[in-house]
């Protein structure tokens, strides 16, 4: 790991970024998956060398917060557990998101894990790709029932069937809920990723760090024309990914094998402590396959649990203060770090979210953001409370016709006033825009 770490505002495993509550270390998980032993290593590192706060991120990774002077010891411990990149320069570009149920989902069109491993190996071993921004990201969707379809990526691929063949639709600077711009065969999935990334690096100026920046001045068709000279692209029209079911990341759900289920649980507001993480790891050893999978909903799954053991797993997760019922208000609420740990935050969002949860009679998907950066949510939530000062928020409702958080509904609300408006909205939902 002798390669110099480039400067960036994004934390990584090898680059600790300072915040109000200390250093932040981001641990990128291959496909969101981590072994129980690795989970113990994360818990130990957070306990020994930091403040004990562990965050599940919205891209299925983990973060340790509150790191003090012993950051080198923390990094060494995580590297020894096999949680690092193959090369130091490869850490930033390991941004490949899969479904949390890759390989076990009952509706998947193919098991994405082998292709994902091939892509991750190339991202880390191809020196040219180390020039990509630490935010440049790829999504591989195998058609699973549990899939995040709203997070924007620089390149996304999504499996579908046509004339008896499984193909990969793809799009640029968007997400699988958008319309695709082309398709390739499964055999060309890896070649497509390589070709798109190489072409982006050839065409983009240094300040154009994301695909959307390049496409603001280069027409999509012009990019696709050049891409077609590198590999065969199939035409595709009017294809759009079907949405998955809600709340499949919480509770007990069947896998592709009749006797097996996975069990999903939500750490309240995406925050775990070492005891919670160790407890989940122990349950995975005892009842699952010895692994955990983290999700873009800031939750975790225990895969490959037998149906007869599911209730024991649920009880074990509850005992460790993890939420296993989608009807619990905190289970569908997200909040950034807020003023307790972030210098840009304008309110104590996590405390405010906990108060809000006590005021809502039923669970609602609400996002509390301490500033306009929206660090806790990579997608637009149905309702967003944007902090304007301590304890005061503007309320937005999602609107496909509006950028950002959606339509501004009310300004300068206390949490109590916001709760009243959210309750009214739940009783009389706003009409969806056409």
Automatic annotation (TrEMBL):
**Entry-linked Pfam families:** NIR_SIR, NIR_SIR_ferr
Span of domain Nitrite/Sulfite reductase ferredoxin-like: 24-73, 253-319
* Positions of the Nitrite/sulphite reductase 4Fe-4S domain: 90-233
EC number, as in UniProt: 1.8.7.1
- Taxonomically, the superkingdom here is Bacteria
The family database entries (SUPFAM superfamilies) matched by this protein are listed as: Nitrite and sulphite reductase 4Fe-4S domain-like (SSF56014), Nitrite/Sulfite reductase N-terminal domain-like (SSF55124)
Q: Name one GO molecular function term.
A: sulfite reductase (ferredoxin) activity
Question: InterPro entries recorded for this chain?
Answer: Cbl_synth_CobG-like (IPR012798), NIR_SIR_4Fe-4S (IPR051329), NiRdtase/SiRdtase_haem-b_fer (IPR005117), Nit/Sulf_reduc_fer-like_dom_sf (IPR036136), NO2/SO3_Rdtase_4Fe4S_dom (IPR006067), NO2/SO3_Rdtase_4Fe4S_sf (IPR045854)
The record's keywords, sorted A to Z, are: 4Fe-4S, Heme, Iron, Iron-sulfur, Metal-binding, Oxidoreductase
Q: Could you tell me which Gene3D superfamilies the record lists for this protein?
A: Sulfite Reductase Hemoprotein, domain 1, Sulfite Reductase Hemoprotein,Domain 2
Going by the record, the broad EC class of this enzyme is oxidoreductase
Q: Which PANTHER family match?
A: BLR3264 PROTEIN, FERREDOXIN--NITRITE REDUCTASE, CHLOROPLASTIC
Q: Name it.
A: Sulfite reductase [ferredoxin]
Its source organism is Pseudomonas fluorescens
